[in-house]
């Protein structure tokens, strides 16, 4: 791990002089989701006092969003604690009595319904027929055998053949189809049903991976994602309780809500603010004597920039406040990085990090909750799965906008009804989810009701009394649900995304080559290789750090991956300043 000796031993190093005078490194964390809160809490627990968390939205939690309706809590975002053995989210929830076990066994390969341990999934066709239980079980066994094969390419170094296009979906669809067609015991009618079920299962996988289509998920990298052993759990009182427990160790004034960031100006050791509109935050430990909204209290230096200071990073907020810092931990989603990386960082990001942002994938998985006065499903039913019989030969999971509803893979029954009432939770992903997000509640409720009538064969199903749904794709602070390894990407891209800036290698090939000044920007936009000029003295290491679920190589897409990534980046800084804190005041 990089130490700070290179900038701390030189009496002539202005960065070190400033740090010694201030006594504390200043760390700004962008984002108050699980990663940001975990990073801030870890730093504060280790003696860092000059820490600020900037959250763009009006609430903490990020992609955890628990909504209370009546006596029940519904999760628009993170829902399950996946696995218990060594899972820090599980440990935090268990220690505070928040858990309820929701699945049996050590693994849940099928992942059709995790709301209830009891009951069966009802597979229904668009002709209003229920697929026989024995056909469902036979198909499920076959599908799971092939699914297990997808793990072998990464774990066993198995080569990927050209026919699969390195796609989980293409490989799975063809393997399952061939086995169904070659089965001498099934009738042609049964084969047609099983072939149609492939698309339904792949829609579920697409929702699980938060891809537009499982066809876009890399086969060679698929097995690197690691499932933590142990049962899955939900938190009846809301996943937000975990967020609140994390935030409990953080003084309220550390977190500033409604504080979106416009740009991170890094490698600014020689930069000076220009223009009267710049009002940088005052020097000193701004975590003490804070007033409302997380702003510093009386400080004789507030509102001016110490002329002797050289700050390596400057955070420019949307409200025009400029916050100088020693380090910034960026926890924004991969979706935001894809949309804003060109304007969000000055100077430009290294080319290999930009390439990783492009190669890795993030999509939208949305939920549609429908509440009914009375259940129209039987007590043994834990989910309603939609199988379109005319998709038996389909090779795509993409639909025209007017047929967006075909991407809904099914509805889970929320259990127990004593807690939730009579509620179904539908799943939809990809571009079709974005179309759904643009529809109003009335239109979505109407379409879902018509689908339920069609697939159950019951024309008397009433419209739901209430609808609640997520909209992660169109939310400007997320631009998607969670990440996946897209075809063409690998775990190495996750590592590149997580790599702190500036790079320690003196390699210009790792950086962008453009040195053109960007018009209209507050501070210097010189590209990073110019920081290697020895006349500027030592370079402050780890100016910009990256965390969030998309930066965890084994646990991307999970809440525990997000939390661990925040702790990882905090650990880098804790190690960097270990000698400073051991010396004491």
TrEMBL record:
Pfam families: Amino_oxidase. The keyword Lyase does not apply. The lineage of its organism: Eukaryota, Metazoa, Chordata, Craniata, Vertebrata. Residues 272-306, 504-539 are annotated as: Disordered. Residues 274-291 have a biased composition (Basic and acidic residues). GO terms for molecular function: oxidoreductase activity. This is Spermine oxidase. Residues 34-268, 308-574 form the Amine oxidase domain. Residues 504-518 have a biased composition (Polar residues). Its cofactor is FAD. It comes from the Eukaryota. Keywords: FAD, Flavoprotein. Coiled coil: none annotated.
């Amino acid at each position: 791990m990089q130490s700070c000796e290179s900038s701390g031993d030189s009496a002539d190093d202005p960065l070190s002089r400033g740090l010694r005078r201030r006594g504390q490194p200043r760390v700004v964390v962008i984002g108050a989701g699980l990663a940001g809160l975990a990073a801030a809490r870890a730093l504060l627990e280790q003696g860092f006092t000059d820490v600020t968390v900037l959250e763009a939205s009006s609430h903490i939690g990020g992609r955890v969003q628990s909504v209370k309706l009546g006596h029940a809590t519904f999760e628009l975002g993170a829902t399950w604690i996946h696995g218990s053995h060594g899972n820090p989210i599980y440990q935090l929830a268990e220690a505070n009595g928040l858990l309820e076990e929701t699945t049996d066994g050590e693994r849940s390969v099928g992942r059709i319904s995790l709301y209830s341990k009891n009951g069966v999934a009802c597979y229904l066709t668009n002709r209003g027929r229920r697929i026989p239980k024995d056909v469902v079980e036979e198909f499920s066994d076959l599908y799971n055998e092939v699914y297990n094969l997808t793990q072998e390419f990464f774990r066993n170094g198995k080569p990927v053949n050209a026919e699969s296009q390195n796609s989980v979906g293409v490989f799975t669809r063809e393997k399952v189809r061939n086995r169904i067609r070659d089965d001498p015991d099934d009738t042609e009618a049964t084969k047609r049903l099983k072939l149609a079920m492939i698309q339904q299962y792949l829609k579920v996988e697409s929702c699980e991976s938060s891809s537009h289509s499982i066809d876009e998920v890399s086969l060679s990298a698929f097995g690197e994602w690691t499932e933590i052993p142990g049962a899955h759990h939900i938190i009846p009182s809301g996943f937000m309780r975990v967020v609140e427990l994390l935030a409990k160790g953080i003084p309220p004034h550390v977190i500033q809500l409604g504080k979106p960031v416009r740009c991170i100006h890094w490698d600014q050791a020689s930069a000076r603010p220009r223009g009267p509109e710049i009002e940088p935050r005052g020097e000193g430990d701004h975590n003490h004597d804070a007033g409302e909204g997380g702003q510093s209290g009386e400080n004789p230096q507030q509102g001016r920039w110490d002329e002797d200071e050289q700050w390596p990073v400057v955070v420019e907020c949307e409200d025009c406040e400029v916050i100088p810092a020693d380090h910034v931990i960026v926890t924004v989603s991969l979706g935001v990085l894809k949309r804003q990386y060109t304007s969000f960082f000055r100077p430009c990001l290294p080319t290999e990090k930009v390439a990783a942002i492009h190669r890795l994938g993030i999509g939208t998985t949305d939920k549609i909750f429908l509440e009914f006065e009375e259940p129209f499903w039987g007590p043994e039913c834990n989910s309603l799965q939609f199988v379109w019989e005319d998709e038996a030969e389909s090779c795509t999971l993409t639909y025209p906008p007017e047929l967006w509803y075909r991407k809904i893979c099914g509805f889970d029954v929320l259990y127990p009804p004593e807690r939730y009432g009579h509620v179904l939770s539908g799943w939809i992903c990809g571009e079709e989810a974005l179309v759904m997000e643009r529809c109003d509640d009335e239109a979505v409720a109407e379409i879902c009701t018509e689908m339920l009538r069609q697939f159950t064969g019951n024309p008397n199903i009433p419209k739901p009394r209430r609808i609640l749904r997520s909209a992660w794709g169109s939310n400007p602070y997320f631009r998607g649900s969670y990440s996946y390894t897209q075809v063409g990407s690998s775990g190495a891209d996750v590592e590149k995304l997580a790599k702190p800036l500036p790079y320690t290698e003196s390699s210009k090939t790792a950086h962008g080559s453009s040195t053109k000044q960007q018009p209209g920007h507050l501070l210097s936009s010189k590209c990073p290789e110019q920081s290697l000029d020895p006349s500027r003295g030592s370079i402050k290491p780890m100016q910009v750090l990256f965390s969030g679920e998309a930066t965890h190589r084994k646990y991307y897409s999970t809440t525990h991956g997000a939390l661990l990534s925040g702790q990882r980046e905090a650990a880098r800084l804790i190690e960097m300043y270990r000698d400073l804190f051991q010396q004491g005041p």
